[in-house]
Amino acid sequence: MISSDSPFSRSPAPKFSNSFTTRIFSDVAGDITIVVDGESFLLHKFPLVSRSGKIRKMVAEAKDSNNSKLELHNIPGGPQTFELAMKFCYGMNFEITTTNVAHLRCAAEYLEMTEDYRDENLIARTEVYLNEIVVQSLEKSVEVLSTCEILPRVAEEIGIVSRCVEAIAMNACKEQLVSGLSLLDCDGESTELKGGCVEWWIEDLSVLGIDFYQRVICAMGRLGVHPDSIISSLMHYAQASLKGIGKCQIWNPARMKSNPTMAENDQRTILETLVGLLPSQKSSNTPLNFLFGMLRVGIMMDASIACKLELERRIALRLEMVLLDDLLIPSVQTGDSLFDVDTVHRILINFLQRIEDEDNADCGYESEGPGSPGHGSLLKVGRLIDSYLAEIAPDPYLSLQKFIAMIEILPDYARVIDDGLYRAIDIYLKAHPMLTEHECKKLCKFMDCQKLSQEASNHAAQNDRLPVQMAVRVLYFEQLRLKNDLSGSSGDGFLSQRISSGVPSAAMSPRDNYASLRRENRELKLEISRMRVRLSELEREQMFMKQGMMDKSGNGKTFLTSLSKGIGRIAIFSGPTGGKRQKSGRKSREGKTGRSRR
């Protein structure tokens, strides 16, 4: 509060009328008129020149000393801030707040109200408020920083923006430390209360423009704010800034690309900036639904290629945890398929590249054991892609090339059984009856008949949509499987062949031997998985056979009891006669041999 003996006090942002001259003192005639952006102020020279160096120079250069008229152009804050500065020159009461301190500091710099002309001038007064009140509070720093967006570059030159940015980041670090200590003290509280204590300042940052917000987030990352807090702030800012996307952009993307409005360009800039601010640490856990939401918005608004590729790369890092609905991204290109298959294809390429890099970086032989996280992730993604193929297969606009590209990109060991792949191919053949025989063969060759379950094999053998050669192969392998089951081999020969082929050659290099062992180990694990699936099918069939026998007999206990009694009677009555028959049989054999000898 700046005080004086005068009781005159007005609002910091009064309304002016251009038709009348504003007079600070109505009882004393003014001797100088200052025009600020079309608004005239009738003032007195002495109070002004005693504090403002700029006005002192302008008065000295004025020709008419009796009634001077000066014009000030582009003063920060406009007439409202100039009136507050003049009140300060006259010693009137008004309050310095977070909403006007930045404007007053810039106007004081413009008017050259330094200590050279008067002690405790306006520059010094505003600096005290900034240093002792504003920068000590995160909330006040955000309020002052938000008012600097409409100020000219002088706010940047005198350091108001940089001081507020650093103050916000520093206070956020302090809040993080205090919240961490409080969470250690109260360990039994709910997670909602803990999250609210840590991130109470997230909503305050959403009032900033994207340029200032970017600088604040970069400062927070540099000073050590936790990445999860930064991600939460980015999510809240995105929800507040990108919520105005209309339906017209979804259904008519050509209009947006041909003639985008200024608001759409601003939202595109916001999206690309937020993606660039995502933490790069591997420990950061960005929610997948947020990444997919940003990716959908980026596709609709035609964001930069680098922005979309970055989102796809981050999604690929945790593709095994993605849900099917997340992959169903609508296509925005007219005349194309209903879903954006190309984006999912690129995500899958990034995922396979990550798996390969992790395998190459691993130096231990135990890395590909039964509990290998890389192989488990690959199996999950294989099931996910099969479900995705079955979901997009009914699309009549989906080309065969795109459908095949999604099938062949996954390696063979990504699928334990091919039931999901068979289902997707069957749905595609049913939805595209105009395919030629050559195209059907080209599509069905990616399906391994040996990896089909009993139920899928029975369905494929009777499927008229499949090529004849495919149906014959299914029947052949089904007969071979039944033969192995009856003979009890159950694929032991195949396993022994795989094991014998896995012996490394002496002529191979150690790296090639290691790669060969890894490959053979992976194939053996897949074969074991297939044997488990087959074993479960045989156990289920055995259970059905037992149930059928029980149903036919009516009462299994009575049937077994009568059967045991019958066997007992046979054993009782055949005891003595059995020996006689053996003797007679021996005699008859001796007689026959005797006659034959004769």
UniProtKB/TrEMBL annotation:
Going by the entry's taxonomy, the superkingdom of the source organism is recorded as Eukaryota
Full protein name: BTB/POZ domain-containing protein
Q: Mind giving the lineage of the organism this protein is from?
A: Eukaryota, Viridiplantae, Streptophyta, Embryophyta, Tracheophyta
UniProt source species: Melia azedarach
